[in-house]
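Hi everyone,

Forwarding the result from last night's run.
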Amino acid sequence: MVTIFNNNEKITKHAADIFVDAAQNAIREHGRFVVALTGGSSPVAIYKLLATPEYSAKIDWNNVFVFWGDERWVPLHDDRSNAKMSSDTLLNHVGLPKSNIFPMFKDGVTPEDYAQEYEESIKNIAGEDGQFDLILLGMGDDGHTASLFPGEAVLQELDKWVAAYYLESQKMHRITLTVPIINKAKQIVVVTFGENKAHALNEVLYGAYNPEKYPIQLIKPVDGKLLFLTDEAATSTNK
């Protein structure tokens, strides 16, 4: 499903409302809300809105468990860290217990070893089925999502829930949820907007199936909902 808005403020509010509804429903149904956050610039306004008293008061943060969809393998104080951005804009402002936060970085271990440890953390919280209540994603102008980049071997991963690898084009390690675990989620929301996303979004939604070039086409929930929240600029070339 694709919902198009005429300004980013409406995207922000709609995404924040989805987050609150998902949290309330999950906590009511099974006592906890397990969410994977996204990084980049797209969700900043959403996180800031969720941190306001109007929104934060609607959620029982003691029963919220936070993971991430992907991360650059950089220390948590690094400005490139998705965890740092999420903490600065949201997590540090809502009384969320630190034991409920699972950043995708750890000092003193390799990215590959921590990917295995991260998968165990997901199982400990979400259970052996590994189902997230909500996964927030973005989309790059090349059609990537999380750290699922065009042409990378990680796109073929069928068994691991979390994978780490060296992304040559960026000269750095990345760690990411894989396609199988993302597609188990009850709800996946992709937030992407701006004219620079128009070509890729058009190809992803209406073009031929070519996930090696546009990896976000691999995101197809097994038994959940997929929603794109976008704007008129990003859909300007769509037919």
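The two ends are 16 Å apart (CA to CA).

Cheers,
N.
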